[in-house]
Amino acid sequence: MPMDLHYAHDPDMKGIVVATDGSAAATAALDEAIAIAQGTGDRLAVITVWRALQGDFGLAYPSGALLNELLDAERDHAESALSDAVARAQAAGVTAVTRLATGDPAERICAYAAETDARMIAMGSRGYGTVASLLLGSVSGEVLRKAPCPVLVVREPAARTGQDSHAQVAAGG
């Protein structure tokens, strides 16, 4: 279910996949990807992955209307994150295409990078410590393990305080 908001002139041109959820960390990664694209002439392929809510959330009698409202809100947020990313890229003179996907975020991001033959993936990280990442999981960690290309991980701006470097690059498979 791709949603192209701005079509790239050369669909075979390598580009940078940017994973966004609209968070501060994702926006910081988008800004880094835009800066790189301005220098390389790459296009951005921006993806937002949302999980369709399932289950009754512990409610004895879940309301179908409530579930539909939650799904609509999630989809609206995902579409807004994509629109905002495209607007930032276009304002900087960078071409961007988008994809709104559902499913496992790490799997969908890596599949999109493979499909677009991406030069790299740029994404944010909330900067959880080791224990929190073990308990909560880490999409960026999973992408680092499965990516078909190098991955640029940019920490959330608040998590960068006092650090010289705010981005990390890891080579992927």
Could you outline the blueprint of secondary structure elements for this entry?
Elements: E1 15-19, H1 24-40, E2 43-50, H2 64-91, E3 96-102, H3 105-115, E4 120-125, H4 130-136, H5 139-146, E5 151-155, E6 167-170
Parallel strand pairs: 1-2, 1-4, 2-3, 4-5
Antiparallel strand pairs: 5-6
Helix pairs in contact: 3-5
Mean pLDDT: 79
Count of beta strands: 6
Order of helices and strands: EHEHEHEHHEE
CATH architectural group: 3-Layer(aba) Sandwich
Spatial sequence of strands, sheet with the most strands: 3-2-1-4-5-6
Helical content stands at: 40-55%
CATH-assigned fold name: Rossmann fold
Number of helices: 5
Shape: globular
Structural class: alpha/beta
- In CATH terms, the superfamily is HUPs
- Termini gap: 26 Å
Strand content: 15-25%
Q: Summarize the main sheet.
A: 6 strands, mixed
Rg, rounded, reads: 17 Å
Tally of separate domains: 1
